[in-house]
Amino acid sequence: MSNRVIHYATKPRRGLLQICVDWHLTTALSIITLIVALNISFPELSDASNQTLSTYQTRLPTIQYKNPIPKFIYLSYYNPKSGEYLKGNDDIYFVGFWVLIWLSLREISIRFWKPIGSRLGGIKDRNKLQRFAEQGWNLIYYIVFWCIGVKILSRFPYPILSLNIRQYWHDYPHDSIPALTKFYYLAQAAFWIQQLIVLNLEKPRKDHYQMLAHHIVTILLVCGSYAVNFTGIGTAIHVTMDVSDIILFVAKMLNYVGGGVACDSVFAVFVASWIYTRHYVFAKIIWAIYYHLPQDITFEFNLSEGRLATYNLWVVFLALLVLLEVLLFFWLVLILRIMWNVVIGNGADDEREDSDSECEEEPIESKTINEKGIGSPEKGTLYSDDDPTLLSSSKKMYQQISTSQNSSPNSSSLYQRK
């Protein structure tokens, strides 16, 4: 028997980025638990609030907390006279707390959806299973917040489908808003910040930079419209966008589980909803902001009256909205290409999937090898549930073994792909 040197795959050293991905749920839950525990253990912190008069942050008397802990959990700047809330710097605490909540809920939801996709949906590829679970989380979030957005818009005089855009800035400024509106806006801001964090932690897609630009523009629009008291039109834009997203998530989940005709049918509905909401309704919103908004309000910076919309800010917001529409047209091209594949019978495959998934699929099952080519947990791992990056190193290992052991009857079975 000839001497053979076998190089086993070893688990590569994890960088700081991978550690953050693996431990963000534990870290987020630990901070959330600590803040809640402190608030419960020391109730006097929540009681330590005082009513302040008009300040540079609020033009009306509001209830403000002296200690920072309650600011993470409760909405700040409550106006006892009107029963509504104003806005100020303390809202940053609430947004930061909800970023941690969204990171935690996302990870928990993904762990909930993965068994469903694997057992009930029959998904065997690791990347597809991860994407299926992500779409499940997005579906839950968007449905809940779309319903909240519709509830908020129902207090305006005209129904949503009337497309009366000008009503959303009638009686500007909207600096005093109900609790539900304030929660909706701050939670949305936290969600998009969380999306930006996740986007830079996970494997990049083909449209990574377009998504990065989209998230940054969205965060600027959400935070900016909140700060300058345009929450009405901001909520209308969110509700408009969410309709097609919800349908898209359903179509993609059906695609991952092999939905066939059902997937193609839902995708056709998605295309119609995308064109209507994002290239007709959203275009009408942009036009109304461009043409009607300067006619309906006076551009001035008057902090005492809550009028913060200046001409320069109007130009910036209009430019961001147009940039967002340009990004939407970019995705429309991809959508129409996918739709064409459906028409010619190739199915609704997402062209925005991971660039690395084009090369190899990663099966969920683990495989190990020993010197005889038979699975052995004591030896090097060919596939690993803990670190999918071992796949490339496993290929190199197989090539080294094959070169040094051409006469071995088991060498062809060392690397099998299901």
Automatic annotation (TrEMBL):
Bilayer topology reads:
Multi-pass membrane protein
**Subcellular location(s) per record:** Membrane
Q: Which domain of life is it from?
A: Eukaryota
| Annotated Acidic residues bias | 349-363
Q: Which residues cross the membrane?
A: 21-42, 92-109, 136-154, 213-240, 246-270, 313-336
Q: Which Pfam families match?
A: TRAM_LAG1_CLN8 (PF03798)
Protein name, UniProt field = TLC domain-containing protein
Biological source species: Melampsora larici-populina (strain 98AG31 / pathotype 3-4-7) (Poplar leaf rust fungus)
